[in-house]
Amino acid sequence: MNARLVIFIIGGLIFGGMLAGLLYYANTHKTSSDSLDQQKLTEVPSPTPSPVPLEKYQNESGFLFEHPANITVTENEIDATSYADLTLTSETESGSIEIDIVDTKLKDLAAWKKQNKEATSSMKAIETELVDIPAYEEQLNNGKKTLIAIEKGTLYTVVVNHGDNFEYWENVYETIVDSFAFKLPEEDTAPPPAGGSSGGGSTGDDIIFEGEEIIE
């Protein structure tokens, strides 16, 4: 066979293979693009969840805070040394938050930490505040987060048990701490009767002292 013919045939085969490869790539790329475009057209964007509204809780001992409306605040029984013992729970999420406010003989946070040395041996403490009271935010050995604050003989403790939803209870905790404030409940006071007295409209001029002479 002529050498030129052989070279021509080999060149034709190579060219044909390259052409077939290009056609296959172009067709595959077009199919993939069409599939992606179709997928984008059929995808429905997920609705953005609406934020849960907040409710205000106020305690008669003189403090208040906000919490998500789907959280239940339970007032537990207290003794003579306690001001408040609250448990916050959710119907849909495991976990809870405990808030305790009690009398204490400890002077400050350093004294509390010294007294609870065994429980706090390996926890990390972050300096923070509860309202304007210096506080520690600590991660205990049992995995619970605890906020401790002491002022004027009162110990404030907030314990977070995250359960199976760490992010959820962290958000609830931050809402409580950020909104915590001291305020006594407002008492409803009825206005005084018209005329400034409650004796059927009589005034001081109507009072007659014993022995006073009445001149007609």
Overview of the structural elements:
This protein has 216 residues and is an alpha+beta fold. The protein has two domains: 1-40; 54-182, Protein Transport Mog1p, Chain A, CATH 3.40.1000. It has helices at residues 3-42, 109-115, 166-179, and strands spanning 54-59, 63-68, 71-75, 82-90, 96-103, 124-130, 133-139, 145-151, 154-161, 181-182. A hairpin with a 5-residue loop joins strand 4 and strand 5. It is elongated and about 115 Å long. The termini are far apart. 12% of the residues are buried.
Features:
2 domains, three-stranded antiparallel sheet, 216 residues, Protein Transport Mog1p, Chain A, seven-stranded antiparallel sheet, alpha+beta, elongated
Secondary structure: elements and pairs:
Elements lengths: L2 H40 L11 E6 L3 E6 L2 E5 L6 E9 L5 E8 L5 H7 L8 E7 L2 E7 L5 E7 L2 E8 L4 H14 L1 E2 L34
Q: Gist?
A:
The protein has helices spanning 3-42, 109-115, 166-179; strands at residues 54-59, 63-68, 71-75, 82-90, 96-103, 124-130, 133-139, 145-151, 154-161, 181-182. By secondary structure, it is of the alpha+beta class.
- The secondary-structure element order is HEEEEEHEEEEHE
Numbering strands along the chain, what is their spatial order in the largest sheet?
3-4-5-9-8-7-6
**Which structural class best describes the helix and strand composition?**
alpha+beta
State mean pLDDT (0 to 100 scale): 78
Q: What's the Cα radius of gyration?
A: 38 Å
